[in-house]
Amino acid sequence: MSVKVVMRSEFVCIQPQADLYHAAVLQSVVTAPFYALTESAGKVLVAELVPDTSRGVAYGLYSASIGVMALATSLIAGMLWTRVSPAAPFAFGVAMAFLAFVALHFVPELKMASNA
Prior knowledge:
This protein is mainly α. It has three helices and two strands.
């Protein structure tokens, strides 16, 4: 990965070479469908479970909880990376995903309002 730094009197511009540019484009193409599917699914679940009168508050609490958990997981991942090993955050992520998978099998099936 090579980067070219261009210095001018007004600003410093970092111009990525072709390999870095293509990697960034590939990452965007791969992650965009993931976020499109996961973000919409969570918001649809909130819409289905909460009455119309308190839906705005529910969306706010949902988004706030996502933000707080993202901060917490980033801190945990950083501590695992520096104190254990660079592979530890990934192993932790796999373990948490497995625990969530197991826990979802114990959640009773929800009857959605639209299916009733």
